[in-house]
Write a structure and sequence with these properties.
Rossmann fold, alpha/beta, binds guanosine-5'-triphosphate, 54% helix, binds magnesium ion
């Protein structure tokens, strides 16, 4: 199946992503097989508040990329549940025009794996699409809290989508938001107030930008009319060139690799300690705790002691 996926077989790719998404015992093996083939695709993150037009924009972006002969993979992250929901349906409808195109693969993924990490399984999904030959991988996430931050670790280029008339100051001022965006997209520019938002964002950039390096461009688009989409595309390409040729970009890649290892370590520790705790719990340890025959610290240590055996045996996942 891995060979099939690597040669671009859509059903095999879908199967691999499902395995990884549900964190089956084989998922680590799959990712290790993918790894040597990764690093080619341009991974683009598209984030922003609900309804800002991310899916509509992505659909237009797919159109532009396809006209250039590039293949595209899309991962739409559904923040609400690991299973299908309303957001997924909407994303599907927005991007439906590409559904018959074999050069486009669109996939919805839950935002939480069993261990609660948005980013690891999403990232792995993106890596699979990269390894399996997609030239560009777009990840759409609703910008709520942690997912905004996490997308930076995953994407080469992060586009933050803002719209006129949605509590503009709030949108922009939200903590950390200036740092996460590589470029700002003021979408729904066919509506009144887009100029004002753009001016405010530009002012913020001036205020916050320190030193040299990449200065975040502000682009106005209308996913409804297609206006500004070509310019947006050029800007995104320009950012990729910057990332691939600058010290900043090299640092970003190093941080990503470091984070990947940390995530794997965290995940393994959590899996092993959780199963050790499950075993312990079944030995009516709660009753002993209730009767004050033991205390939570001691129990925790016992759980860790028994988990240590599993670590030593080198269990994968
Ligand atoms: N006028 C106008 N409407 C737009 C534009 N882009 C998107 N819309 C509309 O805005 C609504 C939301 O669009 P989506 O593309 O689903 O937005 P989204 O950000 O993906 O939404 P979620 O995934 O639910 O967070 C839809 O009714 C779109 O038709 C635009 O440029 N101009
Ligand atoms: Mg959407």
């Amino acid at each position: 199946m891995i060979d099939k996926a690597l040669s671009g077989d859509v059903r095999a790719i879908a199967r691999l992503i499902s395995e990884v998404e549900s964190e089956t015992p084989r998922s680590e093996e799959i990712m290790r097989a993918m790894y040597p083939h990764t690093g080619r695709a341009h991974i683009i993150g598209v984030t922003g508040s609900p309804g800002s037009g991310k899916s509509s924009l992505v659909s237009k972006m797919i159109g532009t990329l396809r006209r250039q002969g590039k293949t595209v993979g899309v991962i739409a992250v559904d923040p609400s549940s690991p299973f299908s929901g309303g957001a997924i349906l909407a994303d599907r409808i927005r991007m439906q025009e590409h559904s018959g195109d074999p050069g486009v693969y669109i996939r919805s993924m839950g935002s939480r794996g069993s261990l609660g990490g948005l980013s690891k399984t999403t990232y792995e999904g993106a890596l699979i699409l990269d390894a399996c030959g997609k030239d560009v991988v777009i990840i759409e996430t609703v910008g709520v809290g942690q997912s905004e931050i996490d997308i930076v670790r995953i994407a080469d280029t992060v586009c933050l989508v803002l719209v006129p008339g949605m509590g503009d100051d709030m949108q922009i001022m939200k903590a950390g938001i200036m740092e996460i965006a590589d470029l700002f997209v003021i979408n729904k520019a066919d509506r009144e107030g887009a100029d004002k938002v753009a001016a405010e964002v530009r002012l913020m950039i001036k205020m916050f930008h320190t030193g040299d390096g990449w200065i975040q461009p502000v682009k106005m688009t209308s996913a409804a009319t297609g206006a500004g989409l070509d310019e947006l595309h050029d800007t995104i390409e320009g950012h990729l060139k910057h990332v691939r040729s600058s010290e900043e970009g090299a640092e970003r890649l190093k941080k990503r690799l470091q984070w990947e290892v940390e995530e794997i370590v965290r995940r393994r520790i959590a899996k092993i300690t959780e199963s050790a705790w499950r075993e312990r719990r079944e030995e009516r340890v709660i009753e002993k705790l209730l009767n004050k025959e033991t205390d939570p610290y001691r129990v925790a240590q016992e759980v860790l002691d028994s988990a240590m055996g599993d670590f030593r045996s080198g269990q994968l996942l």
